[in-house]
Amino acid sequence: MEPMTSGVRILVVDDDPDLRDLIGMRLSAAGYVVALAASGEEALASFVAERPRVVITDLRMDGMDGHALFERLHALAPSLPVIILTAHGTIPDAVAATQRGVFGFLTKPFDGKELLARVADAVALSPPLALNEESADWQAGIVSASPAMDELLRQARRIAAHHDPLLVIGPRGVGKEAIARVVHAAGPRAKKPFVALRCSALGADAHPEVMLAEALQAASGGTLFLDGIGELPADIQVRLLPLVREAGIFGEKQNPAAKRLDVRIIAAATHSLEPDVRAGNFRSDLYYSLGQSSLAVPPLDERREDIPLLVAEFTRRWLAKSAGIGRGFAPGAVAHLYEAPWPGNVRQLRSIVDQALGQTVTPLVPASLVRRLMREENEREMETFDDARRSFEYRYLIDLLTATSGNVARAARIAGRNRTEFYKLLARHHIEPAAFK
Questions:
Q1: Where are the alpha helices (H) located in 219-265, listed in sequence order?
Q2: Residue 184, Cβ neighbours under 10 Å: how many?
């Protein structure tokens, strides 16, 4: 059997080359794969390239010190264990860092066995993305090289073992259903059905309870994915609540009612539902039942390093089912895709790739064709003026009532409207000021 350390990547950061090499040799001898960095800046670049499971860093370094490095790493990957090396005089600093979320610290000079024991503890809390060292089938639908997606996948794998409802939040086109499928595939329900239901269809159907019951039956033993949960009308939210509650207790209380709903519910929304709850547009009891666990999917603009990989993957899929001329993208075309804004996220990128491959008359898609398609696509992605105004009004009113704790007189004065006009605005958006008190 391979040792638990085999293939586990550790990043060691220290501006003392002798100590850095010594730690590296001890970890390598224990079977770890070690990357070395002489500064915080070098460590950040190495972190993106190496994607380690644990980082060991000195506290006092020129330039970016251990504190600053931890803050940067924590922003990229909140669950990444970071171990800080400290001299005797800086123990209070290290203790303070531990309180902010650092995994732990070691006082120099330290014992080699203590180092290995602390690293082993950190590794145990930072599982590999693959279910074992050879297989990562559960995340096969995700193409990524970004630390942000690494972090999301680690969170998804931890959550996958549970039965509780899950709320996935992210802008449209970002891949929320793909993440829901990852959670399903990584958990004990992987061999059972995954059923996706659009909440807009529930809202438009004459008999939504029948559609919901059919979806639950189809997903029995598996996962029911409810996309666009924030769009549900109030009357359907009421009907959904008891089903979410019963599904959520399965696995904890093995009673007949729970067994009847042996389904994990994963819901998705394009934005945080808390403002809608405060405004009275989304039931708080349903929100808290769904939000026992949550995942936030980063937009494509925040993980641009994934764009070339996604372009290559979408090209491969297109070629597998098409007989067009296009065989790939010219370097200039890929560069344009990398720099372009992506309001429609991954879904929009795939649309552009498919269109470009289908329309090109040359083996390599030129940058000129990509630019034209991007202009046309962005025009379609833009909201109408009325939609944009309604969206702005709603968010403005929510922020205003939050800041004034629901005091309509103060809110109206800040908005430059009399109370009658302000109440009409609130009524237009179905916002209840009492919800903010």
A1: 234-249, 256-260
A2: 26
